[in-house]
Amino acid sequence: MSRLQNKIAVITGAGTGIGRACMQLFAGQGATVVGCSRTQRNLDDTLALVTGEGGKGMVVPADLSSEAGAQKLIDATLAEYGRIDVLVNAAGVGYSWANESEGSMGSVTDTPPDKWREVMAIDLDSVYLVSRLAIQAMQKQGSGAVVNIASVLGFVGNPDAHAYTAAKGAIINLTRSMCATYTADGIRTNCVAPGFIDTPMIASHVSLFDDEAVADRLCPMHRPGQPEEIAQGCLFLASDEASYVNGTTLVIDGGTLARI
């Protein structure tokens, strides 16, 4: 079954984790995929996985926290393929970013203003900057599907990572607003809120599941999810199977929010 046959799908954060899993799954379902992240080496590895499985597409290295980076991605996609049918906004940073940018994953009082702006630019501004341009292309076509990646931490309070949680909460409501505005143009906008997913973003926290008591508090299924499990939700929302799904947030968390 080819659920995205002949679709052009732009996927940000494609170098690792959920973005990479979406690239592989979408290509396997007939889409031509365009992946973007900041690191060329990671993108090359992702594209090799895609083409090695018989998929097709290309990659564009760019910093999507900047207007120029978003423009580079969309311009390259339209120049090569002429349209954009699907956009998955998976680019972002999480707990592992603290290893590269000290102070970025703290509470409000522990987060310097420049670190706050840094995380918000990567996790939230990128969604705005890429969506703004991709939607203009979709409006000309009269169709399109946008899938934003948020987090369960966009729904609940958290003792740290306040810039991250604020960005993810904003993405959830931005999704609703985009739905309200662009449905008339034939564009659906939905959101996926993952729980604890075994990606480089939370690598420092995955070991918490080794303690059975802690694992029970984190998730009723006692394990982190896999990027491929999130990609399946993104595929559904991007496909015509979700033709009447619009403005919603699909929580994929193994039951974490059910216990909070």
TrEMBL record:
Which terms in the Gene Ontology molecular function aspect does this entry carry?
A: glucose 1-dehydrogenase [NAD(P)+] activity; hydrolase activity
What's the top EC group for this one? oxidoreductase
Pfam families in UniProt: adh_short_C2
Spans traversing the lipid bilayer? none
Q: Which UniProt keywords apply?
A: Hydrolase, Oxidoreductase
**Lineage of source species:** Bacteria, Pseudomonadati, Pseudomonadota, Gammaproteobacteria, Salinisphaerales
- Family of this protein: Belongs to the short-chain dehydrogenases/reductases (SDR) family.
> What InterPro entries is this protein classified in?
NAD(P)-bd_dom_sf, Sc_DH/Rdtase_CS, SDR_fam
Read off the CDD domains from this record: SDR_c
Its recorded name reads: Glucose 1-dehydrogenase
Annotated SUPFAM superfamilies: NAD(P)-binding Rossmann-fold domains
Q: What is its EC number?
A: 1.1.1.47
